[in-house]
Amino acid sequence: MADDAQTRRRGVFAHPSEEEFARILDFYQIAWEYEPRTFALRWDEHGNVLEAFSPDFYLPEQDMYVELTTMEPRLMTKKHRKLRQLQKLYPDINIKLLNRADFKGLMLKYGLDEDEGLVGPRGQPPKPE
Amino acid sequence: MDSRGSPRWPADIGPTFLSEEQIQQRVAELGAQVSRDYAGQDLVVIGVLKGVLFFMADLLRAITIPVCVDFLAISRYGAAEQTRGVVRLTKDLNEPIDGRHVLFVEDIIDTGLTTHFIMRTLRQQGPSSLNACVLLNRTRRRLIDVDLAYVGFEIPDYYLVGYGLDFKERYRNLPHLVKYERNRSG
Questions:
Q1: Is residue B159 within 8 angstroms of chain A, CB to CB?
Q2: Annotation says B110 is catalytic
Q3: Average pLDDT of span A59-72
Q4: Cα–Cα dist B23/B174, whole Å
Q5: Per-residue pLDDT for B143 more than 70?
Q6: Which residues face B148 on adjacent strands?
Q7: Which of B41, B27, B62 shows the shortest CA–CA distance to B177?
Q8: Which residues of A touch B (CB under 8 A)?
Q9: Which of A28, A29, B1, B155 could form a disulfide with B113 if both were Cys (CB 3.0 to 4.6 A apart)?
Q10: Among residues B79, B63, B43, B48, which one has the least CA distance to residue B165?
Q11: CB contact under 8 A, B111 and A106
């Protein structure tokens, strides 16, 4: 079980939404790991990895990965393609995508919908390759 | 005020999602089903405050076998600093449930986080059986799988208020379920 201090470590998370999500999991005492595994998605002819994907969270008790994104839907094409490729190459992996609308819904539910920093007017930028 | 002088609900109250009649018909069906399934058994029906208030009251009156009733309350995640610890019971059960059949009743299941915590807490108290009954099942954001023995309605990703469901503690007293649309112009 990750302790609450883990979520207070500034700089661990790529985006404030991820830190908030970790706090929610901590609150409900759900064990989690942050980006524990990177899945190779594409290789060159020498076997070097050209493209990979690291889901944001892993919930060990549920054996489920969670990818959280607050990106605008128009910027999601590449992420959707990566998710499809992940599911094709690793069919036994259980992964859940929480998109911008899902996260906004969660924030509305918890009364945090007015915190612009969590979702932002344009959402989070794509992760660097 | 409308033309007849009656107060109006604010503009952020959207269209009706489920009418009183639709809700009552389904609750009656659930009550009949629970009555059949638990006939002759010692059943404790447990609700978690406050959203379940109206559903619990209607469901209990639709159940035609004798049951015991109890309530739990838990802390909720939110912006207040004091809620940034871990979830905890703010009201425990009054009825012992060790060796008894328990039906946990909830208004809505979304991520499954709350239900998972409560079911785990109840299971630790040694009931003979433990099942869950939910009025509204919204699976879009489900993180924790929860076995649901009784489901009123499967719902899409709408934010609903009324019939016990709130937005920042308001609108619970609407008799039907409506879509909450925050930026809806009046």
A1: yes
A2: yes
A3: 92
A4: 13
A5: yes
A6: none
A7: B27
A8: 4, 23-30, 59, 62, 64, 66, 96, 98, 101-102, 105-106, 108-113, 115
A9: A28
A10: B48
A11: yes
